[in-house]
Amino acid sequence: MFNLKPIMKPAVMAAALSALISPAFAEETVLIAGWGAKSGPLRSFGVNSEAVLKAAVKEVNDSGGIMLSDGRNATLEYIYFDSACNAEQAISVARKVASETSALIGIGPTCSGAAAAMFGVFQKTVGDDSDTGLQFPILTDTAVRNGLAKISQWTFRNTPNEPDMYDKLFAWVAKTYPDLKTIYGGTETDQGHSNGTYSKVIVQASKRHGFDWATGAIEGVTGDLGSGSTEVLDSSSNWLMADTNFSVQARAFKKSNADIYIISSHPFTTCGMLKELKRRRAEPKLMIGLTSSSSAEVMKGCPDAAEGMIIPTSFAPITPAAEKVAMLANENGGDADLHSAAAWENVMIIKRVIESVGIGNTPETLVADRRMIRDGLETLEMTDGLIGEVQRVQDEGEALKPYVFVQATEGKWAVIHDPRAMQ
Amino acid sequence: MAFYFGLLQTIGIHTLLGLSAYILLLTGQLSLAQVGFFAIGAYVSGILTVIFEYHIVPGLFLGALVGGLFAFLVGFPALRVKGLMLVVATIAFSEIVRLFFFNLNWRVSVNGVEVGPDSTQGFREIRFYAANGWDTLDVVLFVWLFVVIVMALLWWLDRVRVGATLRAVGADELAAQSSGVNIVAVKVSAMTGGGIIAGLAGGLYAHSATYVDHLTFSVLLATFAVAYPILGGLSSVFGTLIAVIFVQGVLIEGMRFLGDWRNILFGLLIIIAMNVRPAGLIDGKVVLRIREALGTGKKSGGEGHAETR
């Protein structure tokens, strides 16, 4: 007979250990997916978003993970895809995530154009069985063009509300700088966000608060959103995103002799335009920029030329939480700005919703879980933001985020006005 | 499966776009106007199904027709230039089309919702498929029905006198003319045919993506359109399909997991492919081998003529 006694004890221990590390005892995970531009000219947006997303996921896990309906805690995991700000690729990734992964919700896809296309392949109205669109919740962090979330009831955004921001900005400028009366500006016309915000929001807001167009009143602009937008573009000196020469535009700006210049473009051409204005010694009394330019790219690319520019933004490191996110983003190789910082808030919103709706988190309940998360997002009235509470506009899937006005000062964005108490 | 069906849609649409350039390349015309016809087809069919609430079939048909009409009109002045000058002229045409749609603002209220092209804000919610209960499999079958028809038509053309005429013009225009071939008719017909196919592809794209704007129809897409048949080879209509599968399926989707390295490898693999197979992935020799293996091999014939191209 063999003596089994010497090997029994190690065998039992090995069996117990293997049971502990077997799938049945493996740590449960909740998966979310992110995608955005990690290649192409807008790569920095995706890099920043992923950096913040990574930090937020770690924060959730460090604080115990996500509690499931049965009381167990699950670890939050994320996957991130490059969709290159391309409509076809954004749609493809959305389909991949929805049909090939167990991700419960998506955060993406950076650009407004890609979002406009991607949102279109989602089911328009929840529960409409005749609509075969994707049924997968999205909570976008970056795409800021007006009104996108309305495309589908499965799509939500946590992006700034620019009409409100610019309205308050011009009200504040009118009060703070009573001597400034005239404005002149331009935009990168081939970018929907820059162009739309400029021609439909910014110029109208300036009109509403008593500013005059430096080269004569623009026909049709009444102060109402979108009024006279075509005429606004005709009366402005514009450029394209791929432009590298801004001499004609800068000359027109200088010739306008306006008190305030409006430069509505993304960081890349904002810097080009600002440098040309500086070279030509065009010296307005104030410059106002597009929300998207309140980012590190401008401070890295043209801090001297941008000196004095004012921009409303929904992110600035003015609270301990915002400071922490800015630091963590840097540690992860990115920057926190008004776009990317929303990824942090989104992860916290997702945690809150998942814990409140009580998901099963099994392959069998995946479809129902996604629907519950969508419904949970829709019922939110208020969420915690990095610089204050964020109101949800439930019918539209949009957000009303708190904001501050920042000014380029010695190579940094400095908060010069904090209207949060009044919001 | 929605992802794979979606990928098949993309491959199908890009194959049609590539085939629109293929037919022109057979006649020796390198055109970057295909993206212009693609844009025309996309906007026309989108406007018809969204604003005028047409069914997608007549919408696509008319989009293709308008694309073909513009190609026909472009075909005549294009006869005056060739080679690099034709490339420049056709880029100019595509830019004119792109800038036209960049400025096109045609918003109307349909069922209480404002729809239609909104210049730089793009043309949203071209949702015929989803709104009419078509699932991704239905859409794939629909797209590939057109792909099969167009490929079969081009394959057949390549095996009859018309194909030989096209290739003759492409191989040596002067010799073809000396043999009594009507160069004007051949080139304009090829341009028109390419325009119809590109317009059809554009219509399918608009309904698949649900959104188009002027940025969609960039020079990059025009480059892809001519790169597909060149990379795939002009010896067979199937070369374009293989190239699209290689680019869209392998390089873009298959390597997505590589993250930032994807774009570097993308260019590198295309360079390697072009060096290893200078006459295209499916060159004349491959075509002959396949035909011999199938027992249909001929020492001469329509396919295989352009193997040295």
Features of the shown structure:
heterodimer; A: 423 residues; alpha/beta; four-stranded mixed β-sheet; 14 helices; 16 strands; elongated; B: 309 residues; mainly alpha; globular; disordered C terminus
Descriptive notes:
The complex is a heterodimer of chains A (423) and B (309). Chain A has helices at 5-21, 43-62, 87-100, 112-120, 162-176, 192-208, 229-235, 247-256, 267-279, 296-301, 303-306, 320-331, 341-357, 366-379; strands at 29-36, 66-67, 73-82, 106-107, 138-140, 155-157, 182-187, 212-213, 260-264, 286-289, 309-313, 382-384, 389-393, 398-400, 404-409, 412-417. Chain A is of the alpha/beta class. In chain A, the strands form four sheets. Chain A has a seven-stranded mixed sheet, sandwiched between helices. A four-stranded mixed sheet of chain A has the order 2-3-1-4, sandwiched between helices. In chain A, helix 8 (247-256) crosses helix 9 (267-279). Mean pLDDT of chain A is 89; it is low at 16-26. Chain B is globular, with a radius of gyration of 19 Å. Chain B has 13 helices and two strands, in the order ααααββααααααααα. Chain B has one domain (2-226). Chain B has 309 residues and is mostly helical. In chain B, strands 1-2 form a two-stranded antiparallel sheet. Chain B is 69% helix and 2% strand. In chain B, helix 1 (2-26) runs antiparallel to helix 9 and helix 1 (2-26) crosses helix 11 (237-254). The interface between A and B is large, with 37 and 39 residues.
SSE order and pairing:
The complex is a heterodimer of chains A (423) and B (309).
Chain A: H1 5-21, E1 29-36, H2 43-62, E2 66-67, E3 73-82, H3 87-100, E4 106-107, H4 112-120, E5 138-140, E6 155-157, H5 162-176, E7 182-187, H6 192-208, E8 212-213, H7 229-235, H8 247-256, E9 260-264, H9 267-279, E10 286-289, H10 296-301, H11 303-306, E11 309-313, H12 320-331, H13 341-357, H14 366-379, E12 382-384, E13 389-393, E14 398-400, E15 404-409, E16 412-417
Parallel strand pairs in A: 1-3, 1-4, 5-6, 7-8, 7-9, 9-10, 10-11
Antiparallel strand pairs in A: 2-3, 11-15, 12-13, 13-14, 15-16
Helix pairs in contact in A: 2-12, 2-13, 3-4, 5-6, 6-7, 8-9, 13-14
Chain B: H1 2-26, H2 34-50, H3 56-78, H4 84-103, E1 108-110, E2 113-115, H5 128-131, H6 136-157, H7 161-171, H8 173-178, H9 183-209, H10 219-232, H11 237-254, H12 261-276, H13 284-293
Antiparallel strand pairs in B: 1-2
Helix pairs in contact in B: 1-6, 1-9, 1-10, 1-11, 2-3, 2-4, 2-9, 3-9, 10-11
